[in-house]
Amino acid sequence: MSVRVLLVDDEALVRAGLRVILEGEADLDVVGEVGDGADVADAVGRLTPDVVLMDVRMPRVDGLAATRALVERAERIAAPGPRVLVLTTFENDDYVFDALAAGASGFLLKRARPEEVIEAVRVVARGDSLLFPAALRRLAAGRVRPGADGLAGAGLTGREQEVLRLVCAGRSNAEIAAELFLGVETVRTHVANVLAKVGARDRTQAVIAAYESGFVAPGPVTPGPRG
């Protein structure tokens, strides 16, 4: 089945370019487009996209507010909503971090090459997160929440902490398995446990939680001691 994509951007030229790129792929189908975040919820209800390519800055309702609205809608109807892939001109845009914290699964620069756009849509459509560790570290600077406890209250085991640090460093399950001398299925189980304990729906939200709690700090992310 094709991945259904909704384009959200206030620039018609950007939407047209994205449509051309995506509709050239047999497994991707652009089901609609809107020019402002205010129209996203209605479009999602009518068109049921799998992925929303969401501009960050729009004149009436920005991508941050629109992403929050989609997450709230999914919670209200107790059904999984579409995955949100944020589009941005600058990777250090504060709106990007806030959109990721609100529920977006990743972000993509508008100057990305066509093949990068295509792969990004496929990645988030299959339920994975699109993480850029270096950019996230820059965005996370100074974002530790007041009273944050470094996820001490989450009850992560030593191994789960180690896995989360590697997730924050951008490692895939296969890379984590090789680094820790574990099976891939074991790593998947650890990742699933981490997501449940920190209340994250995917890897992106787990990484955001790690930064906002002070579990990891902006700067080089390295695994801690085994336990």
UniProtKB/TrEMBL annotation:
Keyword DNA-binding in annotation: yes
Domain Response regulatory: 4-125
GO biological process: phosphorelay signal transduction system; regulation of DNA-templated transcription
Domain HTH luxR-type, chain residue ranges per copy: 149-214
Modified residue annotations for 4-aspartylphosphate: D55
Single GO molecular function: DNA binding
UniProt-listed InterPro entries: CheY-like_superfamily, NreC/VraR/RcsB-like_REC, Sig_transdc_resp-reg_C-effctor, Sig_transdc_resp-reg_receiver, Tscrpt_reg_LuxR_C, WalR-like
The entry's keywords: DNA-binding, Phosphoprotein, Transcription, Transcription regulation
Name of one Pfam family that matches: Response_reg
Protein name (database record): Response regulator
Organism, as annotated: Georgenia ruanii
